[in-house]
Structure formats: structure tokens, C-alpha cells
Amino acid sequence: IYIGCGERGNEMADVLERFTHLKRTESDHPLLSRSVLIANTSNMPIVAREASIYSGITIAEYYRDMGYSVAVMADSTSRWAEALREISGRLEEMPGEEGYPAYLASRLAEYYSRAGSVKTLGTDDREGSITVLSAISPPGGDFSEPVTRDTLQLAKVFWALDFNLAHRRHYPAIDWFMSYSEYMSFLEDWFSHVDRDWKKLCGDARALLREEEELKEIVALIGADILGDKQRGVFELAKMLKEYFLLQSAYHPVDVYCPIQKTYKMLRTLLKFNDKISNAIESGVPLQKYW
């Protein structure tokens, strides 16, 4: 279920056009046959913008009660909150921070609390679920503004989009330092069936990217001439990790769906290569032998 909340009219028209050509990954059926699109453009009434989010989550609950797993994508809750602010102002209610209504946090909590997996009532044994994905558009990229701050307190997973990554055409443009998931502890048993080293590999990959970021700050201050082979190797290996593993294309048949076993083997191969290079450099082998 896609909710275009306060979107521009031409953007919604583009979404409707693109959806007609998309196919489901597990079959050749059109994606539109199992999708619901709620189009609420920016030139529609403010009340309709507020109602669009509730309409989408209610439709999702209908299919969840039928035993389906439903994904709700709301774009964006920031414009929905702006509608709440405008309606609250017209009703002459007491404003909160930045003019938003004082009940903004409770409204967001009511919305996100409707997600989850349930066993439905009735004679048939059915289990359905709702997964909510909401886009937030903080003005000026300010993560301390009320909508972003309240959402971060409620959501268990956060993907921070980085403008610099998008400018370099690195997609998905997800910042790997600011993004997080609080479900990793719950999923450890599932990932351990793939391999027991999964958690360690993820930690090693993050450590490599973090080390590269620290070296970038040093290079920006002093220059790249002071770097030794080991530090230059960190740059090259982090570049490989970003370009060969993190960089993906949702429109490529290989990247659109990747089995978890393949993902694990790709990451393991890159990090094994990292270990080999590091050991060779420590043994005195120059970096030019490899690049």
C-alpha cells in the first residue's frame, strides 16, 4: 500500500505510470495487481492529507485480518504532520514546538502502534502482519525537528539518507553510520542459521568503514602524502566494500533479490581479502603489488 501524502501532482502521475510496468519478483504478474495506491497531491484539501494516512493503515488492517502480510509505505509523514499543524491552527488549539499540535507525538504513536504481526480472530487460524515504512522530510536536514525526533523515539529501524551519496550516484543512498536497527538482537538466531560468523562480519565491515572515515578527516587536515601502505590499503578496501557490496541497483535482475547465503559469501570474501592484504602489508609487501 503506497500513500502519497502531499506529493506533487506530477510525481504522483509518474508513480502511477511506473507501477504499471513493474513486475513481481516471484512471478511475472504485474505489481499493481497486489497494490493499493492512495494519491493525495499537495493541491488537495488539507483534511484529505490528514485522512490519507489513516485510510492507508485501515486498508492494511483489512488485508492483515485476511491473513496477508502487508507493507505500508507513507510518503511522507512530514507533510501529514504539516496538515495536522494547519488544522490545529484553524481550530485555535494550543500550539506546541514549532507550531505543531501538542498531541503530535501521541498521533504518531497511534499510527506506528498499528503495525506488527497478529493472530486474527475467527474460526480460521490466520496470522497476518503490517510493516510500516514512512518517509520523513526534515526541513534543512534537521534531525532535531519534532516530527523526526518523535519518530525516532517510536521506530525500531531508521535509514538515514545521505545527499552526498546520492550526488555520487551511490544507491541506496543510506548513511551506514547514522542508520540503525534495534531488531538485530531478535534476529541473531535466524542469522546464525546462515553462519555463526554473521555478526562478526557485520562488525568488521562497519569497523573498516569507520576507520576509512577517520582517515578522511586526517587527510583533509594534513594531506594524503603522510599515509603509509596500511592506511592506503584501508581506503582501497573500503572502496571495494562500498562499490561491490553496498552499491546496488533495484532495477538490475541480480540486485533486485539476493539470497542471504549469497550476501554472506560476498561479505566474507571481501573481508577475507582485507585480512590477506593487511597481513601482506605488515609482512613488508608493498601495496603496489595488489593495485
Automatic annotation (TrEMBL):
Pfam families, per database record: ATP-synt_ab, ATP-synt_VA_C
Domain ATP synthase A/B type C-terminal, chain residue ranges per copy: 191-290
GO biological process, one term: ATP metabolic process
InterPro entries for the chain: ATP-synt_VA_C (IPR055190), ATPase_F1/V1/A1_a/bsu_nucl-bd (IPR000194), ATPase_F1/V1_b/a_C (IPR024034), P-loop_NTPase (IPR027417), V-ATPase_asu (IPR022878)
Domain ATPase F1/V1/A1 complex alpha/beta subunit nucleotide-binding: from-to ranges: 1-181
Record-linked SUPFAM superfamilies: C-terminal domain of alpha and beta subunits of F1 ATP synthase, P-loop containing nucleoside triphosphate hydrolases
Swiss-Prot/TrEMBL keywords: ATP-binding, Ion transport, Nucleotide-binding, Translocase, Transport
Molecular function GO labels: ATP binding; proton-transporting ATPase activity, rotational mechanism
CDD domains, sorted: ATP-synt_V_A-type_alpha_C
Family: Belongs to the ATPase alpha/beta chains family.
Name of protein: Uncharacterized protein
